């Protein structure tokens, strides 16, 4: 199981577009969840932070180790919107920061349930 947390900086003036993206995710949750299934993603969470007038997004995910090697079914429209969002809103001059997981605490029964869903 792979657990990741990555920090991205939002381009100045794009907070409203981030609001639209978050709303799009909520409104299209069925397709989003289908896409996560295809990516063998068990959990994906987006956090927002505003610090010193700069906005950041944090992506937290728990996924199957094989996820990077597997191209399961996906929802292409969702993927297109995701890429469009990144291109428009994520500051590419800021190197994404990958946090290091010091401890991962997932009860055995929950881990087993996630892994057996494959």
Give a short overview.
The chain is 39% helix and 26% strand. It has four helices and four strands; from the N terminus they run E-H-H-E-E-H-E-H.
Describe this structure in words.
The chain is an alpha+beta fold and 118 residues long. It has one domain (2-116): Alpha-Beta Plaits (2-Layer Sandwich), CATH 3.30.70.100. 39% of the residues lie in helices and 26% in strands. Helix 1 packs antiparallel against helix 3 (76-89).
Strand and helix layout:
Elements: E1 2-9, H1 15-27, H2 29-38, E2 41-51, E3 54-63, H3 76-89, E4 97-98, H4 108-116
Antiparallel strand pairs: 1-3, 1-4, 2-3
Helix pairs in contact: 1-3
Rg from Cα? 15 Å
CATH class: Alpha Beta
Tell me about the largest β-sheet. Answer: 4 strands, antiparallel
The CATH architecture classification is 2-Layer Sandwich
Overall pLDDT level: 88
**What's the CATH topology label?**
Alpha-Beta Plaits
Q: Can you count the helices? A: 4
Helix-strand makeup class = alpha+beta
How many E-type strands?
4
Termini distance?
Answer: 13 Å
Overall structural domain count = 1
Assign a percent range to the helix content.
Answer: 25-40%
Instruction: Extract low-pLDDT stretches.
Output: none
| Element pattern in H and E | EHHEEHEH
Overall geometric form = globular
